[in-house]
Request: fold
Amino acid sequence: MTRNAVPLVLTALLLPAAAAFVIGVVPPLRRSGRVAAWFSIACMAGAFVSAILGWAALDGATPVHVVWPWLPSANGPFATVGIFADAQSTTMLLLVTLVALLVQIYSTTYLHDEPSPALGRYYALQSLFAFSMMGVVLAPNLLQLFICWELVGVCSCLLIGYWYTKPEAARAALKAFWMTKLGDVGLLIGIVLLHRATGTFDLLELRAMAAAGGIPIDGLALITFCLYMGAAGKSAQFPLHVWLPDAMEGPTPVSALIHAATMVTAGVYLLARTDWLFALTPGVLAIVAWNGAFTALLAAILACVQTDIKRVLAYSTVSQLGYMMAAIGAGVAGAGFLHLLTHGVFKALLFLGAGAVIHAVHSNEITDMGGLAKKMPQTAIVFLVGTLSLAGVPLFAGFASKEEVLGAVWHGGFTVPFAMLLFAAFLTAFYMFRVVFLAFFGTKGHEGGEGHEGAHAHDAPLLMTGPLWVLALLAVTIGIYFTVNEPWHEFEAPHWLTYVAVTVALSGILLAYLTYQRRAISADALAAAFAPIRTAARRNFWLDDVFLGIYRGVLLTFARLVGWIDRYLVDGVLNVVSAWTLDAGDRLRRIQTGKVQDYVWAVGLGLLALMAWIGVAW
Amino acid sequence: MTLEVIAFWAFAILLVGAGLAVVLGKNLFHAVLWLALALVSTAGIFLTLDAEFIAAVQVLLYAGGVITVVVFAIVVTERLVGEKLSQTNRRIGAGAIVSLGLLALLVRAIAQANVSLPRPPLTAGLTQQIGTSLLTRYVLSFELLAVLLVVGLLGASYFARPEE
Amino acid sequence: MGLQAYLTLAAVVFCLGLFGTVTRRNTIGILLGIELMLNAVNINLVAFSRFHGGDAGMVFTLFAICITVAEVALGLAIVILLFRLRRTASADHVDWLKG
Reply:
């Protein structure tokens, strides 16, 4: 059956590319807005269907590795392009195409009052993004992965800066681009060093070499660390996580697609793909695990003090990415990958739900919301489903994968990271239900804000609620499936793990209920108890200031130095030469005295010189 | 010591001496007169070269015509200013260097050249020969020369016409 | 006297004339220098003509003398004109083409 997997997977990969190309190259189509939108959605639907069929065709069979030669070299092609479809990549392909399709459908309503040319641009970028993400997922070698990786970054930047006339959006787009670029430098260095050590980019060949012990261990830690740097940039690990909250300046569907389900998971996916390489360097894996757990905790703390609903979700994404990385660092990439899949579903759900709320209330602030459950029942239900998944409550999607992650970290012997992750789980439940209680229950404006008139708040149109229901049903289905059939794991989890995990989640929910719904505990007193942490969290632990300081201190100083050299040394030399030329000209001018006798004298002198030179009378 | 040698040396010394006076003299009018002497000495040199016709032409045209014209010019310019035009020289050093250098080179070149020719025997009727050549072989140049003189005459009279 | 004597004489007179042309302040003085130079050339021509036979050199000298006469006339006309316009007979004052 693998024979017809190849054209299916290729169709899935290339349909969005064709859509992007056509919309980009045919100006009337792009300017038409809605037509471009439905064209892109049609191509995306085709891609989704192909992805499903391809996944089914491949089920259980041997992986497919099809490449075409690209860059020539003396013995065999230097680089190839193609696809490598195995169970992992086709599953990821399903996630990418599904979320992309739902987001594109959702966007038609969410962005319905955008000018048509801008809408055309949006859909061109969406299609291009889908293609590049799938390129990363299906890449058979590191070079193609890197190219598609960069393309993903570009699309992300352009989509975050979709409303580019807003200065904050433009800044956020550039910040995202440069932060991930910082990581990408490491990725490129890692790829080049790996090629130098092994002579190939191809993943299958590398895996075979690793299994046979053919990869030199010397310097391998540096290589894997460099690869991790690239992943850390894209997957928002500390300290390169600062771009993700700011990236919320983009439209909410973009956040749902890119900063929840697909692009940010590219780093996790890369590490999961190359876990056999990282297994050779346990030191780097330990760093991955510790940093992942730390990021999870840090982001959870930061999420507790946010009032913008999208920022809460952004920090939550950072936190969950930390979970995934911690699992991979513990050596169980499967657990991280499982959490990636479930997280993709329920985080996209949460973002799209938040988008519906924002669309209704015309504001991102939680303080402008309140009592929305009565006015927007459908949205409230799906949002609650997503929140329960995120908190890790049984019967919902996130429960099993979170437990897998915790089990993996415990099994790997990382006790402190385990504790950090557990505490982060508690905080996750707490801050998510804080949002739920403040936005959907209770009365409006309780924390002191004046918001909009809630009279406009109502459930969104079908094209927006449809995707929401799809994702919610998917989350519940996955949750029930995994609660009933425990996922196969490679390790023995301690029997008390499930109970601890569920207790932690429920106690977080309880605390949120008591503080924000019943008002039994005063929110201010709670905050005052942790006053220094709260202050630091409000300032994002001064990380942005550190980066700004480095930029000003290092980069600008260097730029000034180079500018000085250019003005005074390079230009200076030129100016001196020119001044000397002018001066010499002024002096030589005086030869022309205007007096005829001097000219005759000069002729005589010339004659003398000529005769002497040709040797007359010598 | 033949007559020819004495004659040559006599005329040569006169020529060079007069030439020195022409270029170094303070008084312009005196310089012109010394030029006249130089020109006549040149005619004498021509005589030692058996070129009687050229000597005659030299005296007639040069010593007669040119000197006269120059004297007139001096008188005209002197009168306009109303004072004796005195001469001082400028940049003597530079001029001397070039002239003496050139002289040195030329003399050495002549000394090293292989030109020790004896005089060919004198043929009679040189003047007649010149006359015939002028009207046969060089007739075109001769006519053009006439045209040139007319043009020069016209030009000079136009230049120096009285002011209106 | 051999040819070389005449050539040397001509060289001396020529250099005298050159010196005069370069150093004299008065424009007419410059013309006198030019006269000497032309004179020296004529001596050269006649001497060569005598020692090679034939009359070509003499005819050339004839022409040279006539043309010199015309040139002197014109030169003096220019000197007079210059004098009328600028009230100067000094060549040092004629420097309006200086760079």
